[in-house]
Structures are given as C-alpha cells and as structure tokens.
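Hey team,

Filing this mostly as a record. A colleague (T.K.) asked me to run one chain through the structure pipeline before their review meeting, and I want the input and output archived in the tracker in case anyone asks later how it was produced. No errors, nothing strange. Just documentation.

Input sequence:
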Amino acid sequence: MRRVHVIVHGDVQGVGYRYTMRMVAREAGVHGWVRNRRDGTVEAEVEGTDVQVDEVLAWMAEGPPGSRVASAQVTDAEATGARGFEVLPTA
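Output structure:
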C-alpha cells in the first residue's frame, strides 16, 4: 500500500473540489481524507495501490470544472491501513 500527503494550490475552494474528490476517491477505491485549509489550499491524504493513488493524483492535478489547480505538492506518508474516504473540517 502507498499513502501520500498532498497540498493543492490554486482556485480550489468554493468550487466543489473536496466533495468531487470524495466521489473520485471512493470510485478509485482509495482511503483517506480531504479538507480545506485556512490559507486557501486543499489538503488530502490518499492511500491505496500505486495504480489507485496515481489515478486520484491525476484527477487532483486537474480538479473539478470551475477549479484552477496551480500546483500540487505530493509527499510520501506512512500507510495507516485506514478505511473509507472522508471530507474533514477546515484546518
């Protein structure tokens, strides 16, 4: 299993990014979470197989219609074995 921590910069709040990402993540079969940050970015952790994680990362680089992703910082994280994918409160 692979887990990554991602911070997405750009126009990514107020455009349905988190809730669309939850649908994409659940369809891909990954686990983790996504949330807005007070600095205007979106933060997420995604865990699954390499193929599953890469699929979600590809979507995150584009985002939903109405968003504009400027960049995404991806760092490896330790797999937790967590289940489910949730939208968390703003941090």
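Quick notes for T.K.: Residues 2-75 form a domain with the Alpha-Beta Plaits fold (CATH 3.30.70.100). The mean pLDDT is 97.
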